[in-house]
Amino acid sequence: MVNAYHYEESSHNRNGALTPIGNDVQTFWNSLVTGVSGAATITRFDASAFRTQIACELKGFSAEGVLDRNEIKRTDLFTQYALVAADQAMKDAGLDVSKMDPFDIGVIWGSGQGGMQTFEEQVTEYVEGNRVPRFSPFFVPKLIANMASGMISMKYGLMGINYTTVSACSTSNTAIMDALNYIRLGKAKVIVTGGSEAPITAASVGGFSAMKAMSVRNDDPAHACRPFDAGRDGFVMGEGAGALILEEYEHAKARGATIYAEVAGAAMTADAYHMTATHPEGLGAAKAMEFALKDAGLTPAEVQYLNAHATSTPVGDLSEIKAITRLFGDAPSHLKISATKSMTGHLLGAAGAIEAITSVMAIRHSIIPPTINVENLDPALPAGLNIVINKAEESRVDVAMSDTFGFGGHNGIVVFRKM
After folding, report:
1. What domains does the chain contain, in order, with CATH numbers?
2. Which own/partner pairs from 251-255 qualify as long-range (CB within 8 Å, at least 24 positions apart)?
3. Which of 102, 126, 131, 354 could form a disulfide with 159 if both were Cys (CB 3.0 to 4.6 A apart)?
4. How many secondary structure helices (H) and strands (E) does the chain include?
5. Does residue 346 have an active-site annotation?
6. Are the beta carbons of 54 and 41 closer than 8 angstroms?
7. Identified catalytic residue from 56, 225, 279, 346
8. Would you place residue 241 in the very low, low, confident or very high pLDDT band (cuts 50, 70, 90)?
9. How far apart are CA 43 and CA 210, in angstroms?
């Protein structure tokens, strides 16, 4: 069966999600469709000296029950997020690894920053300690971005393909695309994929704040992230993880797995334009969408939902819209668009995984989550676009597309199809 590679779920929590609006998939989804914002004043550290003092933090997160005390001590938050989300996904997939060849199961995981908190803490301690070399022996293992994929494989004894993708905010979609293609090549039967990010640290927030990339609506965090709104002033940083189980179709069918949706196609391109800005005309993004649909054997007319990357930046949102209209036209009546970062904030390298879950949940439930906080649509947007604003809409979704774009000009697109 061509392109029969899919995301799957059990009848309980669906795959794995840790987000600022819910620490499991069902809570996350319920928050999305009811328009809950995850933004608030930063509590992780004292951000009062920064231009931006708000973020979308996880609430009530604990790795206990999945990791023991020593494992928690020896891992950075981004790895803990990965392990907890992957644990949810593995349990919900109902995979019995003992009945499989462990070399048939792999992990392709993404993180844009890796152990930023560990890096910041250890280097600060070194400087404040008069440069006495007292680094922790776990400094490097906690820091390196591939540790999440390695730890997931160790936890479950998964001995197949194992590595980490890094393509800034396209990271998770890159991981999903690679998982899809390795299964297509017959190199794996099952791959745990997704991404995690723990960027709410002084160094990370300070860096993005210095770039003037983030919103400064510090007095009204819940309404700060407002993609496509005329008054948008930057993104709101988020954190968390999303985990998906991709499995070869015949293998899943043989073990009686509940098939949720097909990962129908994916593609990447490069803008080759600027270090941090997207191409102003959306040339690379439009081609990535076109190539992803070609890979899926679909046409633009068959896409019913597009989960936009839209981060709430003045330039980025418009360039994405130009890419969309370049492919779909100025008034595609069949296509509904929403930007769920308005609720979750921007999870950087984990954004694609969370939005992949959003896309397949939209397929399953025939509900399109809204773009919240839109008071006045940017007049530069084409009037014929159907952007779902402030309230979820019931709508049949057979094909969904998820856009991600990253610093460095990386464009990563994944397309999902109802099975």
Report:
1. 5-260 (3.40.47.10), 266-418 (3.40.47.10)
2. 251/189, 251/190, 252/6, 252/8
3. 102
4. 13, 16
5. yes
6. yes
7. 346
8. very high
9. 20
Q: How far apart are alpha carbons 391 and 372 in whole angstroms? A: 7
294 vs 271: CA distance, rounded Å: 19
Alpha-carbon gap, residue 298 to 419, rounded angstroms: 14
Rounded distance, CA 103 to CA 105, Å? 5
Section 301-327 average pLDDT? 97
**Please, which residues bridge with residue 238 across strands?**
56
Structure tokens of 107? Answer: 């992990």
What tokens were used for 392?
């979820």
Burial pattern 98-111, b for ≥16 Cβ within 10 A else e, equals eebeeebbbbbbbb
CB 314 within 8 A of CB 228: no
- Is-contact 382 238, C-beta < 8 A? no
Q: What is the pLDDT of residues 77-130, one digit of tens each?
A: 999 999 999 999 999 899 999 999 999 999 999 999 999 999 999 999 999 887
Is the pLDDT score of 158 beyond 80?
yes
331 falls in which pLDDT band (50, 70, 90)? confident
Question: Which pLDDT score, from 0 to 100, does residue 5 have?
Answer: 35
Q: Count Cβ atoms below 10 Å from residue 113 Cβ, excluding itself.
A: 23
Three-state DSSP class for 219? coil
* Residue 244 CA neighbour count, 13 Å, CB half: 37
Coil, strand, or helix at residue 264?
A: strand
Catalytic, out of 6, 56, 169, 410 = 169
Q: Which amino acid would we find at residue 263?
A: V
pTM (whole model) above 0.85: yes
Instruction: Judge whether 309 counts as a catalytic residue.
Output: yes
Q: How far is CA 116 from CA 31, 143, 201, in A?
A: 28, 7, 7
**pLDDT exceeds 50 at position 14:** no
DSSP 10: -
Catalytic residue list contains 334: no
